[in-house]
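Troubleshooting log. The previous structure file for this entry was overwritten by mistake, so regenerating from the original sequence record. Sequence copied from the archived sheet and checked twice against the printout by T.R.
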Amino acid sequence: MQLRESSIVVKSARLRCENGSALIIALVMLLLMTLIGITAMQTTVMQERMAGNIRDRNIAFEAAEGALRVGEAMAMDATTGPYNGTGGLYDDEFAPAPSWQDDASWADGASVPYPGVWVGAGNVPRFRLERLAPISSGSLEVPPELEPGFIRVTARGSGGSDDAVVILESLVRP
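Regenerated output below.
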């Protein structure tokens, strides 16, 4: 009988020493799970922002490309009109085009709006044409004064927000 009493005493002493350790382990595990959850949420939010920015940039690129194609077609047309610095038509010799970096240079009179509706873009895509001075090729067949010059077509498109802006440029030889 003595043996049984001593085993009961040993068990109760062990229980007194282990009281609360399960609570501490559970709280540490709960803290770790909370940190993992917060990290996963932050990663998801960052991926959502990146996807939105890529979408805005794609919309801006497509809008600028559409305006560029319309501008190229207009530059190839012989009846484009005088390049006198009005309506987005500039002549390198008389009225140099304003800087494409300046937002005010894409105002109504300084550029041509895309003819139609562009869905998703924050602003209407715009383009402008700039006739460059002729560059002589030194050909014996065509006099230098008759050498046709290039027309620079610059287009600007914006995405769903004004932060996503794409500017494209091409040279056309009519």
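Helices lie at 2-18, 21-76. Archived copy saved in two places this time.
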